[in-house]
Every structure is written in C-alpha cells, then in structure tokens.
Amino acid sequence: MVTDRRSFLKSTVVGAVAVSAAAAATKAEAQGARVKPGPRDVLLVVDVQNDFIPGGALPVQEGDLIVPLVNRLAAGFDHVILTQDWHTPGHVSFASTHPGKKPFETVKLEYGTQVLWPDHCVQGTPGADFHKDLKVPHAELIIRKGYRKQMDSYSAFYEADGKATTGLAGYVKDRGFQQVYLVGLATDFCVCWSALDARKVGLGAAVIEDACRGIDTNGSLGKAWDQMAKAGVKRIRSTDITA
Ligand code: VGL
Ligand code: ZN
C-alpha cells in the first residue's frame, strides 16, 4: 500500500537522522566542546624562563617542548599576560640562603612550609630571561613575582602568605577578564597556585595540561591536580582550543 510504504520510508529516514545525530553528539562529547577565546578570556603564560628549561638552574623536564605550543595557543588569544619569576640574590626560597640545607628540602617560615630551591631566576640574570623561542609579541602585561626577599611567590596573584598582592587581581578585574587559561612551568607550583588563586578571586580557570610541565617533587604533581580539581579548575588540552 502506498500509505504504508510512505510511513515505512518516513520512519526509516527519521530513524537514520536520529542515529546520525546521536553519533555526532557522541563524537562532539569525545572531542570535548572546543572553545574559541573571546574578549573576556586571557591566557596566562607562567614562567617560561631559561632557569626552568633543561640546562637551567631549576630545570623542568621537557620544559622546552611546550614553547612552540605556547606560541601557537597565544596567537589565538586577544589577551595574553606573561609571568616572570624574579628573585633577589639571597632569596629566602634558595637552599643556599639556609646553612646546611639542600635543594628540595623544606624549612618552616612564618608563612608556612617552604620548599628550598637551587638559586634561580635572579633579577637581571640570563636565567631569569624568557626562553629565546617564546614569541608572544602581543602580550599586554608582564607580571613579576617573588621579588620580596623574605617571601616566595608561586602564584601570579598573591605571594606565599596569601596576602601580599602582585596587583594582578586588580588588573584582571579592571580589564573585565572573566576566564583565565593557564600554560607554562611548573604545573605543580606556579601554574597550580596561580590557578587556585584565580578561582579565589572569582575567575574561571582552565589549565591546558599539554602546554605545561611539572617538577613533581614528593608527589607534588598529583597533589596539585587534586587541589585544582577540588577548586573547580578545569583540566583541558590544547586541542580543546580553536584559533
Ligand atoms: C617555580 C619553584 C620555584 C615555578 C618557581 O615557576 O613553578 N617553582 N620558583
Ligand atoms: Zn622561584
């Protein structure tokens, strides 16, 4: 019968559409929703400095590998901020400042437990310079941190006591940015602390994990990811961002 045949065809077509829509949804889910950075998004490029690159004073494994990726991602953002670890000579975070202490040991300071590092990113030294291949000419701000001799600062927002400010929270608010994307070194210290503070000041935060590398001392990398997840920091990949 004509009608039967028609309704059969119709249901087949509807069925096919439904199946392909479901397949598309599954594919999109598997890929994750891709994000195109907009005017309220800012990329924070954390400490891509010579001392954190293999061959530097506090090398992060594969730290050099992220540089081309960071350049590519940055090109897709209208707004980029760079951070620069910027310590005084004899800084309190240096093992050499504490007689008898070695790098990666800890000391208790007024503001809490401080991991001790090799001397690194001393103001004005080549180790504190950005990696020579980092190309982000449109970066709008370079925020320096850790320049108070008696206090470390992993975060780009607040120093280690959680109170001394770098001014970044005010800047970001003034500029109307709402969502911070983070890349750079090191995942478990400056990237993590910056992401946590971004959440504290009411910003959205997403760490682009393949554009970061970690130090991982005493389980610090796993702990960092746990803390970030609890604080609502998104963990994404560079393929989640479209230019
Ligand atoms: C960093 C340790 C000491 C970092 C800075 O950039 O993650 N880590 N200073
Ligand atoms: Zn440092």
Q: Topology as H/E string?
A: HEHEEEEHEHEHE
Strand content: 15-25%
Sheet of most strands? 6 strands, parallel
Neighbour order of strands in the largest sheet: 5-2-1-6-7-8
The N- to C-terminal Cα distance equals 54 Å
Helix content: 25-40%
What Rg, in angstroms, do the CA atoms define? 23 Å
What structural class is derived from the secondary structure elements?
A: alpha/beta
Poorly predicted runs? 1-19
The set of bound ligands, ions and cofactors reads: pyrazine-2-carboxylic acid, zinc ion
3D shape? globular
Find the count of extended strands (DSSP E, 2+ residues): 8
Helix run count: 5
Whole-number average pLDDT? 91
Question: Keywords, please?
Answer:
single chain; 243 residues; alpha/beta; 6-stranded parallel β-sheet; binds pyrazine-2-carboxylic acid; binds zinc ion
Secondary structure elements and their pairing?
Layout: H1 2-31, E1 41-46, H2 67-75, E2 80-85, E3 106-109, E4 112-115, E5 141-145, H3 168-175, E6 179-185, H4 187-200, E7 204-213, H5 220-230, E8 234-236
Parallel strand pairs: 1-2, 1-6, 2-5, 6-7, 7-8
Antiparallel strand pairs: 3-4
The protein binds pyrazine-2-carboxylic acid (VGL) and zinc ion.
